[in-house]
Amino acid sequence: MLERRGILAIAAAAGIGAGTAGFAGRLVEMIPITNRGRKALHPVYGNASTPEWLRDTKTGALKANPQWTLRHTVDLQCHSECGLQVKIDRATGRIQRIIGNPYHPNTLSDYAPVSTPMIETARLPGTVCARGNTGIQSAYDPYRVLVPLKRKGARGSGQWQPISWERLITEVSDGGKIFADTGDPASKDIEVLGFRGLYAKRGELMDPKAPELGHRTNGLVFQGGRIVGSRMLFAQRFVHSFGSVNVFDHVNECELSHHVATRHVYPGVNMTQPDVREAKFIMYWGTQPGDANFPMQTQGKFAAEARARPDGLRYVVIDPLLSRGGVIGDRANWIPIEPGTDGALAMGMIRWIIENKRYNATNLACPTLKAAEAAGELSFTDASHLVIVDPKHPKARHLLTAELAGLGKPAAVGVEDRVVIDAASGAPAEAAGVARAAIEYSGEVNGIAVKTAFRLLREAAEEHTIAEYAAISGVPEARIIELAREFTSHGPRAVSTMYRGPVKHPNGYYNGVAVMLLNLLVGNLNHTGGLATGGGGYDVKKGRYNVMAVPEAAGAAFGVIINREGVRYEDSSEYRVKVAAGKNPYPAKRPWFPLSFAVYTETLPSAVSRYPYGVDILIWHKATPLYSVPSQGNPEFVAAVKDPKNIPLIIASDIVVGDTSMYADYILPDVSFLESWCHVDTYPTTLTKGTGLRWPVVSLTAKTKDGRHMAMEEFLIDVAKRIGMPGYGKKGVPDSEGKYWPLDRREDWYLKATANLAYTKGVGNDVVPAATAEEIAIADLAPFQKEFGSSLKPEEWPAVLGVMVRGGRFQPASAGREGEKLTWRFTKPLHFYAEETGTTRNSMTGAYFHGTTRWVPPATALGKPLDQLDNPKVWPFTIITLKGALQTHSRLASNYALREIMPENGVRMAVSDAAKLGVRNGDWISVITPEGRRRGRAVVVEGVRPGVIAFNVGYGHWGYGATNYSVGGKRVAGDKVRRVGIHLNPVMRRDPDVWQMSLMDLTGGSVVFFNTRARIEKVAAHA
Amino acid sequence: MSNPLTTPQFVPPLRSMTELYNVVHQRPFSILFANYSWALGIVGGLALIWAINAWRGNRERVEHRFTLPLVAALIIGGFVNILAEVEQPGRLIYGYYLGWFTWDTAIIKYGIILLPLFLVLAWWLSFQSMPRERLAAEIGRLSSPWRELADFFTLWSRFYSVFDSPFFARVVLVVMAFLGLFGPLYSAVFLMNEHGVPVWNSPAEALLFLASGIGAAATMMLAIVPLLGWLASGTWIAPRAHHRWTAVIAFALCGLVWYGWMWWIGRFGTEEELRAANLFMGPYAEQIFWNWTFAGLIVPIVALITPLGRSVLAQAAACIGAMWGSYAARIGIVLGGEAINRSGAGYYAFHTNFAAFWYSGVSLLLVGGFLAALLAATPRPSATSGKA
């Protein structure tokens, strides 16, 4: 009994003692027994952190709070590139808060001129969206890779070993049997070429029988996921100096056909945007204010301002999905169109506008800029220009020139040499001398059958009746007419604009052109309230320094890009050999994309199938094609990527072990956007000229032995120096006087580009003043200047620090408009007919692309209509994706503050569809496609077109911290929060005609996200 | 920043993020509130059953002697959890000596008065339930300073017995029964007062917390209280069998209240209440079913109503299931309320934090420690009357 009591006594002493000790923290907090408990820091704001700025209550003067460092940089939580003001705790060096940079056009409607002292911006806090706010969590992601990793075991085994920076550089540079230590039987005996070995082959042709493919050094491929602006320039400088043409980012995954279609209509321009705040009517195709667009929050803010005015903006959203609140009140409407039929709706509108002569006839009749200016117009088109339509003519599909028209020696060149029918005389004439030209002409000139570009469009529109267009698009005929009437009722203050919705289809290019051509009919370009091409950015490549110049490597990079972009198949040796052998040269083994660029989605399948050539070294820079490219996450393809025989060396430059970088051989620790450099231009939406500066406001990656924070640029510099590439090391970057400056660290390059930005010629009131001592103190730049002092000439530092303090250089907000005109005006001819497109063939079918647009049903690479591929009766749903405001990009998986609000995505489906299937909101359902199935929760809503299902991308990760892996034998546990949700990309439709190719738009080059058909099965409860 | 490649993975506590993103509302409670509510629920059930038994004259049973130490220890555990949960515990303590203006307007102040009274009463009655002669012999054997200390901690119980006076005994038992009802209801009303959280703003949870507390307490009377008796005396004494039926009725009531509540808000609820129902019938359905309905209700009922229900093993299984289920129900309700975004933006994923686990552990240590102390103070069966 004594023993029993003794045990109880010991247990009592231990429990009460340990418990009291464990509770000591709270007990101490109970000591100040007052009605406020533990005293708060501030009587009103409690324990919230202190503000950035303080005011002297006696004098009213502002001063910076010495507790914080304030730095202005540029966001990259999405591609809007908004300016940020980052608040950093001086004591800990840790970021406390992120808001908008008041100097940046995206974050304030009336942003502060760059001449404004920083202290005066205290009253002007800029705004950023939720993503911008939570960028802190991207940088401080507990899954960050901060030291180099090398795989242990086979690719994708999930086992990593930390290695030194020196070992990383040595192994990938020198090559050899560098995987002997991995224990992977498939790769331990592989002799890897490495950068040095491949660079040594820089004089050798890839294939002597196909010299157009370029040198063997094209075996280096830099596949960039998220890389823009001058960071891309840095990568290009390395890759081009190495002798490879293969450096590109992810454009075709995102929206390429949008750019190519825009270029069709506005030559050389990738993007146009409405002057939202002054427009009266906007048609948003496949996007809406506040949704993914350029820039997201700015478009939303401008639209909110504009629609709030009494006579302000009205707009229509044309999209199968009604997403988050863009359509509000009686000023906005939603048209739930059938996916991929935007071209049909636009052509129906075009037909009605032409038939009812609701177009801007004055504008369209002007064949030249001179004629347009004389008529008081702000732009001109090729509507009246004649196109050779005789298919047998050697110059068929080309625009008619004076010489071909028999008008004698041309009096003008270029656009003005084109031939039109003079409206005054009715005779053909060189455009240069014509004030008004006929736009409907069809006939012969000098015996050549010709039609005007406008006539071609009209005939294309007349291929279907409006009723037929209505049936195709699912938009009632009356609604099409109503839209067309409304659009043509506001003069040039009506705009048709688009983002991904219309173009991520096999017919995306033609849809996009049709949407864009509506603008030409009302002649809205360059008008206040009309369409803008924007002021663009400042040149950072030249000026004080020529940061791109590597004279010894000039011309080293040439040949066909592995994705076969920007080159015609007909110019290839493959084509010539087939023709010479009397064979039908079509189809090519894989498509060629002569009108496109950055056809990122073709990189991996091309590399694996070695077409047109194989890859020796692949660098994935923040790229995750296996997660983000439709269908590329399928098991067969992942196995092919994992096989080192297909691609011997894969290096991922990433901030985490991502969904794709988990299959790399090495992961080099890259910097997050808050630690990186970049110069990024503003978008046309903000109308003015501007270039934001992203610079490292914090540094988190491990350091190299010589004190540099590890990053992609430091990797390229060290590899270049190790293998002896020109342009790096002591003889790095030439200045304007020809003197060379060292390039040993990334700041040596980016600071010089920033000097170019600071010193480049201005456009009025945009010169950034030198940073004051106070501003240098606020941004804590003195230590920075000391550390990198030798990277610039001493006299350049004040101006460069001025740009760093402001986070870039921007034209004042007031400079966007000049009365009824926009300040930055585009003066080239706008195209109803794109000669380049019209004279280019489809590499799979041999057919010519259409020089103007028309309704083109979506089809496979060899032309099989998709409805015949997957019977809609068997597969009644079409999958579309949603780029929501809270999640899309992989890096947002780490943003728990966003995941709190939307922890799971689910499958959005229409109420009527759900009712037919007996599915209720929240039920588990299986989405089955011809490629596989995935399980998710049904989100039953009214805001989606029946027959369509949508999922928000960014969920259902398998990497990026979602699953377990090990580093140095230690297990890193995955987080379920990142794993939840449904991701349908891996089961999206592959093109049956080409091995492992997603469905593609062969004209514009976009990969297809919106044409996979599916069926839905309800999953039994708790299955 | 530490190297995450070598440090354990850690999900940042969400509360610290509220300063970054103002749409995210403050979530006042973590699992610590569920711990607190569970402790008060069990305490209430135990006290109620004990008082009724005592009223009926069953004062020689094992339940009478060994229930109240458990009650006292659990009240301390509940206090620890709630003091750890509130960010400024000093403000609670402040209420005892100055915070009585407008005292009747805030529900929290009823608890501030009554719960300490409950603790003192349970502590005192723990000693009053012991045989007075044995207690007197045990304390009388001690040297003077220890004897005085023991008298203080036992509230001089060796000198008198409240049960000697039928009137005072009844008054005390009525107060004890009232407090037994108050404890579980109070923790529910505490939640109901948190505005704008539909899951919490229902009186159903008060009924639920009370019934689950009684049910779990009844099974503890069958399995835990005899265990405490054995720990203190080395003898296993079987409790009264009718606790089985008390438990079964309470569990049946729990099922009725829970599913009735879900049906009600599904049928008549506002949009926000429907979202709450969707949560429990959707994302939380699996957890709720297995942890609450199955482990907490079905297993105990089946274990107790079958003929096997008389066996210690079945009663222990029922007890474990009931304790786990009653805890799971509270976790579900607390976290479910916090999961629903008040601005209608969706459901939050819940992340707990290290502090919540830490203080849960601390409270377990303290409950165990105080329980062991009270059991250690139990007089030995062999003790005989000494100095009185």
Summarize the structure in words:
The complex is a heterodimer of chains A (1023) and B (388). Chain A is an alpha/beta fold and 1023 residues long. Chain A contains 31 helices and 38 strands. In chain A, helix 9 (256-265) runs parallel beside helix 17 and helix 11 runs parallel beside helix 17. In chain A, the strands form 11 sheets. In chain A, strands 9-8-21-22-23-6-7-36-37 form a 9-stranded mixed β-sheet. Chain A has a 6-stranded mixed β-barrel with strand order 31-35-32-34-33-38. Chain A has a 4-stranded parallel β-sheet with strand order 13-12-11-19. Among the domains of chain A are: 156-250 and 553-672, Rossmann fold (3-Layer(aba) Sandwich), CATH 3.40.50; 861-1018, Barwin-like endoglucanases, CATH 2.40.40. The radius of gyration of chain A is 30 Å and the shape is globular. Chain B is mostly helical. Chain B has a single domain (22-376), classed as Formate dehydrogenase/DMSO reductase domain (Formate dehydrogenase/DMSO reductase fold, Up-down Bundle), CATH 1.20.1630.10. Chain B is built from 13 helices and no strands. In chain B, helix 2 (62-85) runs antiparallel to helix 4 (107-128) and helix 9 packs across helix 10. Mean pLDDT of chain B is 83; it is low at 1-24 and 383-388.
CATH architecture term of the domain at 156-250 and 553-672 in chain A: 3-Layer(aba) Sandwich
The CATH topology assignment of the domain at 156-250 and 553-672 in chain A is Rossmann fold
CATH top level label of the domain at 156-250 and 553-672 in chain A: Alpha Beta
How would you name the oligomeric state of the polypeptide chains in this document?
heterodimer
Largest interface: A-B, 71 and 68 residues
Shape of chain A: globular
Q: In DSSP terms, counting alpha (H) and pi (I) runs of 4 or more, how many helices of chain A?
A: 31
Instruction: Note the beta-strand portion of chain B.
Output: under 5%
Named at the architecture level, the CATH assignment of chain B is Up-down Bundle
Tally of strands of chain A: 38
What's the number of structural domains of chain B? 1
Helix coverage percent of chain A: 25-40%
Residues in helices of chain B, as a percent range: 55-70%
Low-confidence stretches of chain B: 1-24, 383-388
Class from secondary-structure proportions of chain A? alpha/beta
Estimated radius of gyration of chain B: 22 Å
Looking at CATH, which topology of chain B would you report?
Formate dehydrogenase/DMSO reductase fold
Query: Which of globular, elongated, flat, extended, rod-shaped describes the shape of chain B?
Result: globular
Helix count, DSSP H or I runs of 4 or more residues of chain B: 13
Order of helices and strands of chain B: HHHHHHHHHHHHH
Cα-based radius of gyration of chain A, to the nearest Å: 30 Å
